[in-house]
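Saturday, quiet lab. Running sequence design on the C-alpha cells for the scaffold JK sent over.
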C-alpha cells in the first residue's frame, strides 16, 4: 500500500518499511552512529546496519545485534563481523506497536 513515508528522506528503516514485504537481504556493513532519543533528547551510540538494495539503514537493537553476532566467530566484536551476511527482515508485535526482527539465514 502506498504511504506518505515513501516520500520521507529519513535515513533509517522502520517497521512500516518491512511490514507486508518481509524479505531476505545482504547486510553489507555495520557502523556506530550517535542517535538522539525522540522523547528524552538523550544521545546514545547505536549500531547501524547497511544493506544492499535498501534505501535506508537499520538501527540495531540488542536482540537484532545478538542475532547477527551469534552467526559470527567473533561474537561480541562487531568490528570483526564478516560481510556480506544474508539476513531475513520481518516484523513482530511489540508493546508500542510493531518492530523489525533480523534473522540470519
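Result came back. Writing it out in full:
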Amino acid at each position: 500500500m502506498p504511504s506518505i513515508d515513501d516520500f520521507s528522506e529519513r535515513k533509517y528503516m522502520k517497521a512500516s518499511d518491512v511490514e507486508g514485504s518481509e524479505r531476505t537481504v545482504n547486510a553489507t556493513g555495520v557502523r556506530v552512529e550517535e542517535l538522539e532519543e525522540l522523547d528524552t533528547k538523550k544521545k546514545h551510540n547505536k549500531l547501524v546496519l547497511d544493506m544492499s538494495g535498501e534505501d535506508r539503514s537499520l538501527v540495531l537493537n540488542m536482540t537484532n545485534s545478538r542475532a547477527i553476532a551469534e552467526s559470527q566467530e567473533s561474537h561480541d566484536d562487531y568490528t570483526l563481523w564478516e560481510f556480506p551476511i544474508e539476513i531475513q527482515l520481518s516484523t513482530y508485535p511489540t508493546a508500542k506497536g510493531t518492530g523489525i526482527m533480523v534473522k540470519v539465514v
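Notes for JK: The mean pLDDT is 91. The longest helix spans residues 62-69. Ask whether to fix the surface positions before the next round.
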